[in-house]
Structures are given as structure tokens and as C-alpha cells.
Amino acid sequence: MLADLPISVLAQKLKRSEITSEQLVAECYDRIEAYDGTINSFITVVDRKKAIERAKFIDAHRETFPSPLAGIPYVMKDAYLTKGVRTTAASKILDAFIAPYSSTVHQKLENVGAILIGKMNMDAWGHGASTENTDYGVTKNPWGSDRSAGGSGGGPAAAIASRFCVFGIGEDTGGSIRNPAAWNNITAMKVTYGRVSRYGAIAYASSLDTMGPTAKTAEDCAFVLEAIAGYDAYDATSSQKPVPSYTKALDKSIKGKKIAFPTEFYGDALDPNIKEAILVARDIFVKEGAEVTDVSLPLLEYGVPVYYILAPSETSSNLGRYDGVRYGNGRDLFTKENMRRIMTGTYALSSGYYDAYYKKAQKVRSLFIKEYEKLLSEYDAILSPVTPIMPSKFGELLDDPIKNMMADLYTVIVNIVGLPSLAIPCGFTKDNLPMGMQLVGAMFDESTLFALGNAYQKVTDWHTRSPNLVNS
After folding, report:
1. What is the pLDDT of residue 295?
2. Which residues does 334 contact at the CB level (< 8 Å), separation at least 6?
3. Closest to 80 (Cα-Cα) out of 278, 192, 185, 214
4. Helix H or strand E encompassing 145
5. Angle 313-372-414 (CA atoms, 0-180°, nearest 5)?
6. DSSP secondary-structure letter at 53?
7. Regions of the chain where pLDDT drops below 50
8. How are beta strands 144-148 and 115-120 bridged, if at all?
9. What percent of the chain has pLDDT over 70?
10. Other CB atoms closer than 10 Å to residue 323's CB: what's the count?
11. N or C: which end of the chain has fewer CB within 10 A?
């Protein structure tokens, strides 16, 4: 199966004409037609004929597309505007919306010759941790049909795990790239805030949203990030820092790299299977020459409360435009989870409560920033779980708002501070459910995380495993 191969190998085979982009794209569509009726990872599948035509064009003009992503099929979380292709944010409010322009991330990928084949399922407006809060039917985890694919970007993760595409683009506000990665046995990078343009992405919480790659490996994510990172004049929050060669950093030695191991992260809230898997991973890093040291990050318990004041406050503002007049037909509504977050945010920003909630949360945010800056001035990365729980059964998170929030326990602080984080597979349970861990790094130091992740994946094989799918 061609989609099993890493981007570096596919790029070489395409360059040497050992395979064609048309073959690769056709294989992905064949798998989508055979299996996605069961998984339901897509909201919109790009017209097959159009994708094949573009693949043929890339094959015929390969000399003008030097990028390793040229001719490679990919998918995007349905929060990105894509000119000529429907964008819904998984809400029927936008069911008929065709964007008049493309997001910067999509345009950059188009420019290098990558081939978009689908817009993917998610929790509506990014609100959720299981891709059950969607107007387009739940996405099933390819590793267990009674399990969630994670959220809010379960669609892209399930598609990569199912080999419907080679890579995907996600959006991470509080864990929405990393949570699905852990539950689907794929790799994903939540980038530093400002590293990738947010222009043309439907906002959840503007000071927390980040755009990033999802793929099978750290190496593949590095190839994608090189293509999409960088300053964008259309996004005032994008950084003007030069984009390094992430792929050249992959093979840097990790000997002597210092990894912090926060003891508070490994308490009773963490599933013992995940804890055991990460302890094994810790030993692997040590064997490969890194130094792993127990540290304390006592502010962990405040992450979820602060996030669920800041993020709803921002989303109450961002979603104000969806009033049934400018978008939608007046009949389609926000889901209960959407309304819960909008109302929570509006309350936190209201007169008499702003100082008590929003302002106080921003002060704690400053404490988080200082705490992580100090720790990452002494260490190269922080080793942490992605989620405290295994892939949930349907209904477990949707019916329990508090449990839904706590699924983000280990991820939200990273967004609050604006740091990069690489989620990578680290094992399976006896029931064959995947588990993941994350490496959190200093601002704009994605390169170190890629080196650490690549070193780990060179001596483990978790990331090579794919699920046995059932025909639709």
C-alpha cells in the first residue's frame, strides 16, 4: 500500500517515475470508497476526477514542482477555507458555504503541488474532545468501531490511520491535533503560536489556535511544516522568525539532551496503561543518550479551569457573526456544547464578572508562561502524556461535560503558553488500543522535538502499525 510509505520515499519514487501521483491518489480514493462508509472521517470528499486531473498535471510537470510534497494527497480539518470546496466547521450553519478564497495553509500546499482530497470531520466549531459533537455523524476510531477518534480533529487522524491519505492539516486550540493523534496511532505537531498562519482558518479561540501537520511519523510532519510555516502579511500574529530546515534537524544526535519528567503528570488521573507505556519510552530516551530528570510543575491542576474561561470567552466573540442572517438558513443551530461554551464565555466577560473570572485567568496564564519559560531554560523538552484516558466509548465524553474537559488535562496549558508539542505513538493496550505521548519544547524550537521524536521512532515500531479495516 503506497500510503504506508513515508513522504521521503514517495517523493523519490515519484521523482524517478517508479510510481505516479495518479496511482497514489487513485489508491487513496479506492480506500475511501471501500472503508470510509464505516469510519465517517470525511465531511466533503473532493471530486475524484478533479483530484486525478491535478495528479496527472503534477506528473507531467514534475520538474516545476521540486517540493517533496508534490503529487502527495492530503486532507484538512474542515475548519480551513478552501476556495471552491465546501467548508462547514462540522456545523450545518455553514452546510452550503463555499469559500471565495483559500486559507494561507491551503494555498501554500497548493503552490507546492500537494493534492487536497477531502475536508474532514471534527467537533462543530472545534468544541469537543471526541468528534461526536458534529452535525455530520460521529467519526469512528479505526482501531475500535465503538470508540471515539478523539477531538476536535478526529477526522484527519482517522483518515491518516486508515491510509486514506498521506498527511493531514489539523487545528489545535487545546489539544485538537494531539488528542486524536494519540487515539489513532499517528504523529502530530502542535506548533508554536505564530509559527503557521491562521489566516483563513475558522477561529475557535484566537489567542490559542494553532495550525499544524498530522502524519504517520515525525519525519513526515517535518516535511509538511517546512512547507506551511512562516510569516504571513495577512496574519498579524504570525512570526517573522526565519523558518529552519526541520528535515535537516531530524537526524541530529539527542545525546545529552535534557528531558524534564513532571511528576504531577503521572498521578491517579492518568490511565495506568498510558503511564506504563511512557515509563518505557522514558527508558528508551535514556538508552539513546538523553538525560531524563524528575521535576515539579505544580500548576497543572489550574490548566483546565483557566482554559475553560479563556477559550469560551474568545469563542463567544468569534461566533457572534453566525447569527442566522449572514450565514445559514435560520433553522440550523449551534449544538448544546457550542451553546454551553458561548454562554460560559459571555458570562465570564460580562459586567461584574470580568475581573473575577477572565482577568484572573489571564493572570494565571502569566504564571504558566513564567513557569514553563524557567523550566525550558534548563531542559530541552518536557515528556508528558497527551490524554489521561484511553480512546473513549461513544457517549462517555458527550454525555459528561466535565469528563470531556478533563480529556484536555495535559494539553491545554501548552496552548495557553503558546509552546510547540509533538505527539507520537508509544504503545498499545492488550485490547489493541493505541496510546500516545507528547514532547513539549521551547518557543520556536520544533527542531529539537522533531529530533527527539525521530530518534524514538527509529528504535520503535508503534508508528508503523495500521488498523484492520472493515468494508463499508
Report:
1. 98
2. 91, 93, 124, 125, 319, 322, 342
3. 214
4. strand 144-148
5. 45
6. H
7. none
8. unpaired
9. 99
10. 11
11. N
Contact 312, 174 (CB under 8 A): no
Distance CA(164)–CA(153), nearest Å, equals 15
3-class SS of residue 268: coil
Count Cβ atoms within 10 A of the Cβ of residue 458 and give its class: 0-12 exposed, 13-18 middle, 19 or more buried: middle
Query: H or E segment at 262?
Result: strand 258-262
DSSP letters of 12-49? Answer: HHHHTTSS-HHHHHHHHHHHHHHHHHHH--EEEEPPHH
Architecture of domain 2-464: Alpha-Beta Complex (3.90)
C-alpha cell of residue 214: 498530522
Q: What angle do CA 245, 444, 79 make, to 5 degrees?
A: 90
Count Cα atoms within 13 angstroms, Cβ side, for 446.
Answer: 34
**Cell representation of residue 403:** 469528563
Distance of alpha carbon 341 from the chain centroid = 21
Which value, to the nearest 10 degrees, does the dihedral of the CA atoms of residues 343, 346, 347, 353 take?
170
- The answer to whether the predicted template modeling score (pTM) of the entire model surpasses 0.70 is yes
The catalytic residue positions are 77, 152, 176
**Residues facing 76 on adjacent strands:** 119, 169
Domain spans of the chain, in order of start: 2-464
Over the range 123-148, which residues count as b (16 or more CB within 10 Å of their CB) and which as e? bbbbbbbbbbbbbbebbbbbbbeebb
**Burial of 16 from C-beta contacts in 10 A (0-12 / 13-18 / 19+):** exposed
User: How many Å apart are CA 260 and CA 285, to the nearest integer?
Assistant: 12
- Please give the single-letter amino acid code of residue 166: V
Cα–Cα nearest to 263, from 175, 181, 385, 412: 385
Which SS3 state, helix, strand or coil, does residue 435 take?
A: strand
Q: What's the angle, vertex CA 88, arms to CA 85 and CA 91, rounded to 5?
A: 160
Residue entry with cell 465570564: 348
Q: 4 Cβ partners below 8 Å, 6+ apart?
A: 163, 216, 464, 466
Contact partners, residue 366, CB within 8 Å, separation at least 6: none
Residues 6+ positions from 61 with CB-CB distance below 8 Å:
none
> Which one, of 375, 366, 311, lies nearest residue 337 by Cα?
311
d(CA 48, CA 260): 47
Number of alpha carbons in the 13 Å side-chain half-sphere of residue 326: 5
Residue in the block written with cell 484538512? 76
